Amino acid sequence: MNHWIIAPVILPALLAPVLGFVMRHDMPLARTASIAGTIALMAIALGLFVTAAGDPQVYYLGDWPAPFGIVLVLDRLSALMVLVTTILALLVLIHAVTTGWDARGRHFHALFQFQLMGITGAFLTGDIFNLFVFFEILLIASYGLMVHSGGRDRMRAGLQYVVINLAGSTLFLFALGVLYSTTGTLNMADLALRLQDIPVEEGALIRVAAMLLMIVFALKAALFPVQFWLPATYANAPAPVAALFAIMTKVGAYAILRIHTLIFGPGIAATDGMAGTWLFPAAIVTIAVGAIGVLGARHLMALIAFSVLGSMGTLMVAISAFSPAATTAALYYLVHSTFAAAALFLLADLVTARRAGDRLVAVPATSQNGLFAALFFAAAIGMAGMPPLSGFIGKLMVLDALREPGTMAWAWSAVLIGSLVTIVGFARAGSTLFWKSTALLPAASGGPVVQAEPTAAARPAGVAGLASVMTTIALLALLTIFAGPLVGYLDGTTAQIFDRDGYVTSVLGTEGET
Amino acid sequence: MTEQEATVVVNDLSLIIIVLLPFIGALFPGPMIRAGRNSCAIFTALPTALSLIMLLLLAPSVMDGQVIAVELAWLPQLGLSVAFFLDGLGLLFAVMILGVGLLITLYARFYLSGDDPMGQFYTFLLLFQGAMLGIVLSDNILLLLVFWELTSLSSFLLIGYWKHLPEGRQGARMALAVTGGGGLAMIAGMLILGEIAGSYKLTDILLQGEAIRTSEWYMPALILILLGAFTKSAQFPFHFWLPHAMAAPTPVSAYLHSATMVKAGVFLMARMWPVLAGTDAWFYIVATTGLVTMVLGALIALFKDDLKALLAFSTVSHLGLMTMLLGFGTPMAAVVAVFHIINHLTFKAALFMTAGIIDHEAHTRDIKRLGGLRTLMPVTFVIGALAALSMAGIPLLNGFLSKELMLEEAAHTTWAGSPYALPALATLGALLSVAYSFRFIGHVFLGPVRADYPHKPHDPPFGLWVAPALLVGLVVLIGLLPHIVEPLVRVAAGAVTGGVLPEFHLKIWHGVTPALFMSAIAVLGGAALLAIHHPLDRAWIAARRPEAKAIFDSVVGGATGLSQRFTQLTHDGAMSRYLAIFVASTTVLGYLAWRGGGLPAATRDLLPVPPVVLVGWVLLLVATGSVVLMHRDRFRALVVIGVIGLTVSVGFVYLSAPDLALTQISVETVTIMLLLLALHYMPKVSPVESSVGRRIRDGVIAVAAGAGVGALAYMFLLRDTPSISEYHLANSYEGGGGTNVVNVILVDFRGYDTYGEIIVLGIAGLIIYAVMEALLNGPAARKLRNTDYSSDRSRDRHPLMMVIATRVMMPMAILVGIYIFLRGHNQPGGGFVAGLVVSIALLMQYMASGFAWTQSRQRIEYHTMIGWGVVIAGLTGAGAWLGGKPFLTSGYDYFHFPPIEEFELATAMLFDLGVFLAVLGAVMLMLYSLSRIAHYAGETVNPEPMDYDPSTRSRIVKEEK
């Protein structure tokens, strides 16, 4: 058995207590350990990504046979998600360290590692109750990160986030209760197996469970009508945390993709097609809400938050088709939108640190205005899905995959019009922030110098400060250039996702073997 | 079509290099500006020139009818490849893009002032150039889309180049919105087209004209693609962005908005001509749009006072002309269109540069402030006048040739059954064109020299006029010797029509034809119109016209305002509404899901209700109802919640679940105690925040959801399902070494879950500590300090009785804790409950004697305790790796040391120890955080364990009086 499968969970789980309880008084030590740990995590994730190319690999915790113990399952999908998470984490962590965000409150690094543990655990688990447990871990860690360094608005938004997610967790438990009471098992593969035999005439409870789970995951993925928490949360979270949260919505998307293909997937009589039917309109409305929010945003962070909402809509439109082509497109778009959102949040942090607040009004240009303008342009292009960055490819793939007569007109209109509105919104914001501000500079000769002495925060960002933003944008470019090989891997991933029997056999078929 | 199939296709990688060169070159102007403006310009010209040379090397074979192509895989799954091909049409456009690019580079070197960031300008220019080359050379329509949107983006940057000017910013945004939007429509169109053709490869698509035109998807594809082309080429009603793009520096206007980018739409229509043209829909949409644009653009141009605006609308008009020609759908019209593309490029770019020179020298572009420049700027005059005459279509200049041919084509085209509509309107367009061209000459150069120019004008330096002079040279050359461009026109037009070309020769004299008469009418009429321009102009200004920019601005502004209001109304942070929507939609969706399926027959009977259960049930109902009724009084609500928790625990006992009962009781006790402590620092009463209506709404939703949950529970309680717990029961002792299945599940079967949950608890402790830290450093701390809690304070803070009782209970409680811990594996209990029991024992010490007093008597930090707990649990799990077993595999054995009875040691117990420590640490850390609040709230530290000293008490009483 490949013990590395559990390493992405155990490494941060062991590191975090040490960071929080042993190193909490020495920031340089904590930073070094945290970064080193995240690098190691990324290396492990990369190794798993490579080894996951074959059949799903199963890790039987406690050496109990499935479905009686808990299993971890490493397949292409979970390996991909873990890899994306760790790359994002490293970028965000470096940004947080170089900008000093980690020192603005207690326990940043410990919470960060716990957060990583929660996310990777959620991706790796093959047990639906264990998924709940890891949802709890990633959520509670995210509460802490969300309110990191405090402040009234942040606390208020944080409370909202906590309350909504607690409601979601409660629903999760209800759904699991229904599911367990009707199937008597929690192992995902076993669930997939048992549901096959339940006809629709006896499937009412199963259908309820599937629906409730879908709502729980939709809440995490910020889908209409349970998207309300996202804009305020992301806009008020510390920017690096908001960047890390780019993967949190994807956990919801991942869970829908996993659960509603494996357990309630195609071919299950009781729930056939139900998730797609409901997800599709919800995703369409989400795109609209996101685009409208981008256009109407008055603050930079809110603008980005709404654009994340729109991108989740696009992602879920693709997922809701539950077809192989659309799933590949969705996976590509998922990877892309994660990094695009992160790039924007990290950049917004650099910009807002150098001006008074993030209101979208012109204030005299900050230092490095041109550089920030260029980076914003690039990141916005990525988010809005314009060439030459990966958003365009992702959008093309999504559109190309959605050609079902009933859905095509809606999906295409929503995605394309949504893009247009997003572009207009970003152009307005960028032109106000970076262009209009140059008009406010005092004349070169004569006239009093309006700009005060630069404060510590207003100092030009150095190479280290810019490293994460630039790397993230470079990643978007790499996603574009190497779209071919990546989509090749994703095609394999999709094939695996839709190969239910393969998954079930991997988990249950090797019973007793260790 | 047969000819096309016979064309020789040659593979040549250099096409990729040709397209890439400008992009690579774009890296250089930025740094090179440090070496001076000349180096900057030279390093811009270099990649352009190199690219052009490589292109010209390929030109001869293209002129021979070969097609040069190259293809590299990019994203084969989607059908997107890096595929380029060079045929006549591509060659024509590529030469125009690179040739004019060179001239513009030269012109801009002298046009931009020292304050303008030239490096940036050239970078954007090269990016645009590369994108434009990409469009005209793409052999894959998806790749074409990439470059198409890239031109929108780079033109956005170029229009907004003078970012401090509001016109520049607005113009840039408008151009991006319109052309970007058109591009998005085109994405849809191209995807449909590719689906019909079964390939995204352009050369494949071009062979499938018949299939595409007869497809039921033809109309959507046509309209969507034309949307892209029309927006880009500023066709009515999307023409309005182009004049506002004139806020860009003049080199940009000359390059993008006359010579290249706006022709991308025309290019696309020409490129797609073999597959899309030839239907009625094509004719009526394209030809009509072109015609309207041509006339309307020319009419507006006549009344524009800004030189660049005049030229902009004239460009709109000429683009309309080309569009109309392509819309005719006949091969000859396509030939004329291609010819006019060349001619328009030469005279219009020269005119823009002339306008730029005038602006540069006279510091104004307002025609009404100019005039008489003929003598002051003779060189400019010659250039400008020749170009303008060509635009007017005066013989011996190239504009005349293509205009004649256009009129000829219009003369024998019927529109909606009328043979006169098209020729008449085309003549009108030509007439207006003559009028504004003459105005350009007459009102700017002719007339008396004025005394009030903003700046004394004179001819510019050589560097500024050489570029337009070269272009005007071409104007005259083609005008006099049209046959020299005939091969180029032939090969380009051949590419447009797919090889089928009519007999034609480009020459000045075609004999006395209808076109000649139409042309004469146009010239004479135009001159006459200019003569009465003054009164017309006054009438034009007085007339109310729809102003495109105002409409656009109000649409965008209105949309923005609405969006703002919508967002603020819906995302205003009203948690109760968010939750109401969440719960309501969950209930409705859950119900709908349930409706879609049926239920299996019930397998269990309802049991009779014994009185004890009934009492508990009523108690639960009453307590829950009381919470709803009394929730504003927070203390009472808490107490009632405690009742609910205890009733549930009793329920667990009744249902033979002692583990659950133990856990429930201890959790209940700890949480209620902590909540009570926290409540001390919070308002004791919840204010009424929502209206009655809203409370009724929420009540209905809550009751519906509750009923739903109840119904679900009822349904599954009536049915048996075989579950994995049977395995757990069977294997608990043998596999897990414990007889308490619940504990074995917790620490062994599902130890991983427990591991996760203690981490949750640990994180909670950390967060409470961190949040407290943030709060106490913020305004909340001030509020705490300034609140008077003395009225709530007991006069007997640390009563003797309580202190003594807790002291006595402490060792017992800890013993019980250890006992519960140890027996956990086989009897009800375990680390979790034990941790809670011990923390209750400690909690009571703190309550009895105060935090500080107690704190100074304990040596382990709570932080560390949580840390140890998590680490011990983790390491225990990892210990299994040493035996080659998976994480959390437990081992156990039985030991017998006399005189103690035989007992069992299991690694699971070590794991349970981690659970114990984490639980204990987390609870105590929470308490610690609360006591910090107390400290901030001004609570004093008691030096003694209890307030037993009567004299101390009397003193306190005295002080309070």
UniProtKB/TrEMBL annotation, chain A:
Cellular compartments annotated: Cell membrane; Membrane
The entry's family comment says: Belongs to the CPA3 antiporters (TC 2.A.63) subunit D family.
Tell me the ranges covered by the NADH:quinone oxidoreductase/Mrp antiporter transmembrane domain, including all copies.
127-420
Record keywords:
Cell membrane, Membrane, Transmembrane, Transmembrane helix
Name its GO BP terms in alphabetical order.
ATP synthesis coupled electron transport
Entry's transmembrane regions: 6-23, 35-54, 66-96, 108-125, 131-149, 161-183, 203-223, 235-257, 277-295, 302-323, 329-351, 371-389, 409-427, 463-483
The record's Pfam families line, in alphabetical order, gives: Proton_antipo_M
Please report the name of this protein according to its UniProt entry: Multisubunit potassium/proton antiporter PhaD subunit
Cell membrane as a keyword of this entry, yes or no, is yes
Which cellular component terms (GO) are annotated to the entry? plasma membrane
UniProtKB/TrEMBL annotation, chain B:
Q: Where is the NADH:quinone oxidoreductase/Mrp antiporter transmembrane domain?
A: 138-415
Residues in Na+/H+ antiporter MnhB subunit-related protein domain copies:
802-924
TM stretches of this protein? 6-28, 40-62, 82-107, 119-137, 143-162, 174-197, 217-242, 254-276, 282-303, 379-400, 420-441, 462-481, 508-532, 575-594, 606-630, 637-655, 661-679, 699-717, 758-778, 799-820, 832-853, 865-883, 903-928
Where the record annotates domain MrpA C-terminal/MbhD, the positions are 619-684
For this protein, the record's InterPro entries field holds:
CPA3_Na-H_Antiporter_A, MnhB, MrpA_C/MbhD, MrpA_C/MbhE, ND/Mrp_TM, Proton_antipo_N
All residue ranges annotated as the MrpA C-terminal/MbhE domain in the record: 694-773
The NADH-Ubiquinone oxidoreductase (complex I) chain 5 N-terminal domain extends over 77-122
One Gene Ontology term of the biological-process aspect is:
monoatomic ion transport
Q: What is its main location?
A: membrane
Q: What keywords tag this UniProt record? A: Antiport, Cell membrane, Ion transport, Membrane, Transmembrane, Transmembrane helix, Transport
Which Gene Ontology CC terms are recorded? plasma membrane
Q: Name one Pfam family in it.
A: Proton_antipo_N
Report the GO molecular function annotations. antiporter activity
Entry membrane topology:
Multi-pass membrane protein
Top-rank taxon: Bacteria
Q: Where, subcellularly, is it found?
A: Cell membrane; Membrane
Q: What NCBIfam families does the entry give?
A: PRK12648.1 (NF009288)
Describe its function. Answer: NDH-1 shuttles electrons from NADH, via FMN and iron-sulfur (Fe-S) centers, to quinones in the respiratory chain. The immediate electron acceptor for the enzyme in this species is believed to be ubiquinone. Couples the redox reaction to proton translocation (for every two electrons transferred, four hydrogen ions are translocated across the cytoplasmic membrane), and thus conserves the redox energy in a proton gradient.
Q: What is this protein called?
A: Multisubunit potassium/proton antiporter PhaA subunit /multisubunit potassium/proton antiporter PhaB subunit
Q: State the organism of origin.
A: Silicimonas algicola
